[in-house]
Design goal:
This protein is mainly α. The chain folds into two domains: 116 residues, DNA polymerase, domain 1 (Orthogonal Bundle), CATH 1.10.150; 167 residues, hpI Integrase, Chain A, CATH 1.10.443. Strands 1-2-3 form a three-stranded antiparallel sheet, with no helix packed on it. Helix 2 runs antiparallel to helix 3 and helix 8 packs across helix 12. The protein is globular, with a radius of gyration of 23 Å. The protein starts with a helix and ends in a 7-residue tail after the last helix.
Amino acid sequence: MKFVIENFEQNNCPDAMNEFLNYLTTIRGKSPNTVNAYRTDLTLFFKFLMLYKGKVPNNTDFDEISIKEIDKFFLRGITLSDLYAFIAFVEKYRHNGSYAKARKVATLKSFFKYLLGKARIIDENPALELESPKINKRNPIYLTLDESRKLLLNMDETSKNYYRDYCIITLFLNCGMRLSELCSININEIKGDTLSIIGKGNKERTIYLNTACLRAIEDYLRVRDGSKLPPEDKNALFVSAKNQRINKRTVERLVKKYTNNAGLEYNKYTPHKLRHTAATLMYKHGSVDIRNLQKLLGHESIATTQIYTHVDDEKLREAVNSNPLKDL
């Protein structure tokens, strides 16, 4: 079924786009998640251009716009102004913020660089001068130590999925793994207190499991029923109610459910925020230096990890009150 779906998607995309996505997979070694993100962005871009350039009637349902017929002549006619019009479109009509727009700019730059340098379909790169929106630095949203404990202690032990869900939340809060990494965990990749996972960019890394993680995994494995799993999912650690490997959407829903049940701000906390929590707690309470934290989180750049060096308001208050001039 998966092959059929991928084939369907390819059959509805321009040839140049399919070739670019194949290049990302086979030559650049990009992960399936990254390739799917590029596919989503380019599909949106081409549908916008078909409407923007009058190739389909104005009243056409956006989702129904076909992009299959886009050819090299169409690609050669794309200008820098078209690219900026697209970015304006996703901001106004898709409500994209700076991060989402920056990702689309990166997608366009990569695609047109490929068309010029590898595929040699275009003679000039219209994305060469395309600027990425300014992204203001912001501190990550995370749970405090007390809130993290509250989340774990307020999970419903009578739920049939309690041990599975408790294990999931425990791994997020202790290991700082990504959502996709958690969903892809296989039982045979757990060796003692180590877990091997394939992270962003198809890079393998080792995650170390502390006592809480090992206990949670052990408790869950006692009740995990893998008897009805299809062969391709037999090794999956986390199993859904549909007897298959758990998917990202299911995990997102259960995180929202349990943070809400714990009286935490609804809709604020996601699996990625729990990753932020683990990183922040390790940095603030575990004396983990920034380089080791970078390795633990699987960040390619130390600059990404440095967002966890933020100081909370209480520390700032203590710093001001320690000034010897405070009583003058």
